[in-house]
Automatic annotation (TrEMBL):
PROSITE patterns: PPR
Superkingdom classification of source: Eukaryota
Alphabetized PANTHER family for the sequence: PENTATRICOPEPTIDE REPEAT-CONTAINING PROTEIN GUN1, CHLOROPLASTIC, PPR_LONG DOMAIN-CONTAINING PROTEIN
UniProt-recorded name of the protein: PROP1-like PPR domain-containing protein
Pfam families reported in the protein's UniProt record: PPR, PPR_2, PPR_long
Keywords on record: Repeat
InterPro entries, sorted: PPR_rpt, PROP1-like_PPR_dom, TPR-like_helical_dom_sf
Region listing for Disordered, in residue ranges: 20-44
PPR repeats: 116-150, 151-185, 248-282, 283-317, 318-352, 353-387, 456-490, 526-560, 561-595, 596-630, 665-699, 700-734
Family note: Belongs to the PPR family. P subfamily.
Lineage: Eukaryota, Viridiplantae, Streptophyta, Embryophyta, Tracheophyta
PROP1-like PPR domain mapped to chain residues: 252-415
Amino acid sequence: MVVKLLQLVETNLLGFANTLQNSNNSPPPSNFNPHSRHIKKTHPTCSTKLVSRGAARLPAILHALDTTPHLDDALQPWHHTLTSREITLILKQQLSPHRALQIFQWFNNNDSYHLNVIHYNIMFWVLGKARKWDLVQTLWSQMNANGIAPVNSTYGTLIDVYGKAGLREEALSWLQEMQNRGMQPDEATMGIVVQLHKRAREFQKAEDFFRNWSRGSQVLILRTKNHDSLKATQVEKVSHSNACLLLSSRTYNALIDTYGKAGQLRAASETFARMIKQGVALTTVTLNTMIHLYGNCGRLRQVCFLYKKMGELKCLPDTRTYNILMSLYVKQNDVNLAAKYLAKMKEACLEPDVVSYRTLLYAFSTRKMVDEAEELVREMDERGLEIDEFIQSALTRMYVESGLIKKSWLWLRRFHLAGNLSSDCYSANIDAYGEQGYTSEAEKVFLCCKEKKKLNVLAFNVMIKAYGIGNCYDKACQLFDCMEKFGVVADKCSYSSLIHILAGADKPHIAKPYLKKMQDAGFVSDCTLYCAVISSFVKLGKLDMAEELYKEMIGHAVQPDVIMYGVLINGFADAGSVKQAINYVDEMGKAGLPGNPAIYNSLIKLYTKVGYLKEAQETYKLLQTSDEGPSVFSSNCMIDLYTEQLMVEQAEEIFESLKMNGVANEFSYAMMLCLYKKIGKLGKAIQIATQMRKLGLLTDVLSYNNVLGLYSMDRRVRDAIETFKEMIKSSIQPDDFTFRALAHILLNCGVSKQVVGRLEVMVKRDASSVLQAWMLALSSVLEGDFWLSSGAGCLPCYNTSYMAEAMVEASQSCYLELLLVILSTRVIATFERATAFPNHGYISWRQNYLLQADLTESWAELTTEVC
């Protein structure tokens, strides 16, 4: 619907442009009716242009009023000759509301002059703009006492000045006063009321007021056309489509802007299309408003169309047009195109204003486009344009985030020395340094702020935040403690920031006193900060301190929430304290707070730890019925619990569900491996281990130990060696359980307990340097297995070059012992395995054994020489 409407707008706009181009040479149509144009405004106009009569003497009058304090003396040369028009111009030209009131009262007290409603309107505007509400009321009473009746423009002026001052209710009371007198707003007053609602973001009220006003205006027009031929009751039933309600460009602009700010693209487009259809003159303001509206809705094609048509419609783009376009394309992240519109603005001989530069400077600064930003700053300096605080702080942040700290300081110093920075701007600069961890630079800016005596609570707050980011916790506390010395009172943000910093730094003992001060100051409205400190105590294992603070919180009538209970339940679950955890669960239920997945996960963790199967199953069902479903953590806990209870089917069901959802992790597989190992299903356990290795799910020493233990049970020497190599390659340090599994493999392969014991002793001496010993020992066993399984008649002689390379590396005494252990491992293992297979050839085996013995003796001599 909106797309069709936009197409209709484009069609009408093209037709309107063509009509406009031919209008200069076209005679008026035969059915042209000058009375069917716009509703005539009832506002008396007060032009500031000099009228022909008395035009020469008005500057002299104004000069006399400016230079002569006494009005009798100032106006004496023109006494009794000033016209009502001249009085209007004199009042409008006064810069001081006090002087304007003096002149007004002088004319009012002079019998030679009779002030009219226009003069009162001007004074309402002057005094209202100066917020002199008592004088406005006095003047209103004086006007009524003098018998001067207010007109539409009077009420429009009063509604306007009160509304712009933020006194919305008072402004609407003037509208009510107007209606009580039986007077309906004209188009101009209606527009003022619409603007009033728009400023308050009451878009629906603005639309309703306009529609109600339109119906009233419709009745008035039809009665005028038909005189008294129709009764009022009949006229009110006429549909809006039959009314000839023609509005001014200004009213249409206000309506389109109101719909646009309300996000009603369709209503705005319909109003724009009606404006074009009725032939109401489009202005640059109209097209700017529509460009802005379409741009905010992401309809860039319509933006380009309207921009191109501006010239044809004789509505040339102004500075605001280009500012809107630059802003729109910056939002679309097309900064280069936005910069091109700045160049087009200059080509059109339009001077960019501060908004133009600010838009691009902010875009350049957030994207760290330093060179482009500096070029714009040079232009602004050359043109003498003021660089406001927004630009200043944005560029400081740009320099800091770009790592140009020296440039950032020179930039800041320029404005500091000129004294052009406010407290808030100093705070923004402190924050720019603090957020990037430049604590010392943030301190320097804080001292500059102190030097200019502009410290406020915001400056302290951002500096405390900077200390927190820089891990300067003592300085943060000291700064907070000295706030009162500078006459600054800490606010809620001050306390909150410091407490969060200390709690996050595992310093709840220091945070607790500040929390008490905050409570005494009346800044604690909920349990958020209590939760932060209690959570910090729980993290440190100080559950007694956490409970103590919790009881203090309850004593202050601060009610806990689900997150607070979750922290306590999780803390006691980690500690295995079932009773305390369940107490908090019950307390949460009594408070009417529903459980959540985080709390259920904590309970399942607790039940798994203490072996409460039934309770864990009930809690897991609650997770299954929740929107999020059970997490991997809770599912793994259940697998672990079922593993302990040897409940295979239930564990497999959860495991398959995790695999189906693609979320099974290392712990899931490891638990299933342990389960199958426990019940003796080594085949399935081997399958799990193979899957873990293929999926890269061996990342923890515990998982490696489980797999190595499995291979040890099943005497899978080759798989064990490969897994051990993968473990070492992954830089995972073996532990006692790892070496225990490896020792079991060696023992199962026939290596004597004495040899394995010597390897274990060497681990205790230097675990990190004997990994090669274990690897060689396992490799020796593997080579023996390979040869015997091949069915050859004799055993191979070991690769002496390989042994020599190992010997070169073994320059330390522990390695000499290591090599002897490895050699004896090979010889003994070969002997024991050969006796188990006599058919492989005793003579061949004996020859190899003697060769190995000779080699052992040679190695012993070699090691003696090395030592």
